[in-house]
Structures are given as structure tokens and as C-alpha cells.
């Protein structure tokens, strides 16, 4: 298990647009594994490559109760359908200790490549839809704080964990 340092909001790399992945390489495979390790170690539900300093269009997400249960790798993801609306608490591993309310679609369909560069489509509702939107935003240099309604607020460790159980998204 290898974890990488998560870039904190204010780091200019988080505001850059990431480049698409053209081919899978051992280096990118290692990056994906490290992204999962980093996300799990920090109890996040998603992580985008720029958060560990790599400007590539790669996202990992796991909103399952058990690790690996609902784990997805999204390479060059494209949101192709959305519907509905949800407003809820969102957090980000790059904005530690804080959260804010963000409105997102309640349903999202995304087209992406998996770790073998095979195309697939993923549909998500509620937390998964929120996580997909949040992580895809990172690939375009958008951090959720720019979409927060009202003020960011401080969350304690405990509340943080509660949020990860369902209502919030840490990515
Ligand atoms: Zn994030």
C-alpha cells in the first residue's frame, strides 16, 4: 500500500484542466492503486488525480459500506446524462475539516474507460451521483467550494464520519 500526499485547496494544481489518458501504462496503474490507497486511508469516497498532483483525467470512487464493494475507476469520464436535483453536504479531501451545501443532479450517467481502457457506462443516484459530479469537476480544475451555497462550515472528525455514511461526499 502506497499513499500519496493530497494537495490542499489553494494549490494551483487543483485549478488546472487535466489531460486525457491515451494509453494505460504501469505508471498509471500504480497511480490508480495509490489513489485507492490514499482515498481509503483518508476515509474519502472519491479522489481525482489532480488531488495527488497528477494532471490526468482519472478518478476513483467507492461509496460502498465495505471497501471495494462499489469501487470504480473512471478514466476520461464524460457525464452524458443527468436528471433531478439534490442539495446536501459535501466535503473534499483537499479542503480538510470543512463542508458546505452543494446542489447536484440526483441522477448521473457517465461514460468512461476502466483500468483496462475498456469503455463502460456507470449510472449513479444520490451519493454516487454527487461523487461522480464532484470528482469530474476536479478534472476541469473546479473545487466544490466555488459551488457552495452559503458558507463553508467546520466539521469535526466525528461529524465527518457520519457524513460519509450517507449524506455527504468526501472527495
Ligand atoms: Zn474533492
What would you report as the Rg, rounded to the nearest angstrom? 15 Å
Largest sheet: 5 strands, antiparallel
CATH fold-level topology? Peptide Deformylase
CATH architecture type: Alpha-Beta Complex
SS content category: alpha+beta
* Ions and ligands: zinc ion
List the strand order in the largest sheet: 1-2-3-6-7
Helix count equals: 3
Helix content percent band: 10-25%
Amount of beta strand: 25-35%
Give the CA-based shape.
globular
User: Unreliable runs, pLDDT <50, ≥5 residues?
Assistant: 162-167
Distance N to C terminus: 19 Å
Would you state the CATH class?
A: Alpha Beta
| Mean model confidence by pLDDT | 93
H/E topology pattern: HEEEEEEEHEH
Describe the protein's architecture and organization.
With 171 residues, the chain is α+β, with helices and mostly antiparallel strands. It has one domain (12-162): Peptide Deformylase, CATH 3.90.45.10. Helix content is 22%, strand content 34%. It contains three helices and eight strands; from the N terminus they run H-E-E-E-E-E-E-E-H-E-H. The chain has helices at 26-41, 126-139, 157-164; strands at 46-48, 58-62, 71-83, 86-92, 95-104, 107-113, 119-125, 149-154. Strands 1-2-3-6-7 form a five-stranded antiparallel beta sheet, sandwiched between helices. It has a three-stranded antiparallel beta sheet with strand order 4-5-8. Strand 4 and strand 5 form a beta hairpin. The two termini are 19 Å apart. Mean pLDDT is 93; it is low at 162-167. The structure holds zinc ion. Zinc ion is lined by residues 92, 94, 134, 138, 171.
Amino acid at each position: 500500500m502506497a499513499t500519496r500526499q493530497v494537495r490542499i485547496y489553494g494549490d494551483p494544481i487543483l485549478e488546472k484542466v487535466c489531460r486525457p489518458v491515451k494509453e494505460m501504462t504501469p505508471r498509471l496503474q500504480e497511480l490508480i492503486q495509490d489513489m485507492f490507497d490514499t482515498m481509503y486511508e483518508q476515509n474519502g469516497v472519491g479522489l481525482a488525480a489532480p488531488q495527488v498532483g497528477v494532471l490526468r483525467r482519472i478518478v476513483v470512487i467507492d461509496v460502498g459500506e465495505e471497501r471495494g464493494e462499489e469501487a470504480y475507476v473512471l478514466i476520461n469520464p464524460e457525464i452524458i446524462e443527468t436528471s433531478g436535483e439534490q442539495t446536501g453536504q459535501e466535503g473534499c479531501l483537499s479542503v480538510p475539516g470543512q463542508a458546505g451545501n452543494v446542489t447536484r443532479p440526483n441522477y448521473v450517467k457517465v461514460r468512461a474507460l476502466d483500468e483496462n481502457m475498456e469503455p463502460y457506462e456507470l449510472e449513479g443516484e444520490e451519493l454516487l451521483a454527487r461523487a461522480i459530479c464532484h470528482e469530474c469537476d476536479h478534472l476541469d480544475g473546479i473545487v466544490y467550494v466555488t459551488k457552495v451555497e452559503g458558507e463553508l462550515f467546520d466539521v469535526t472528525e466525528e461529524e465527518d464520519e457520519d457524513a460519509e455514511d450517507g449524506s455527504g461526499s468526501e472527495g
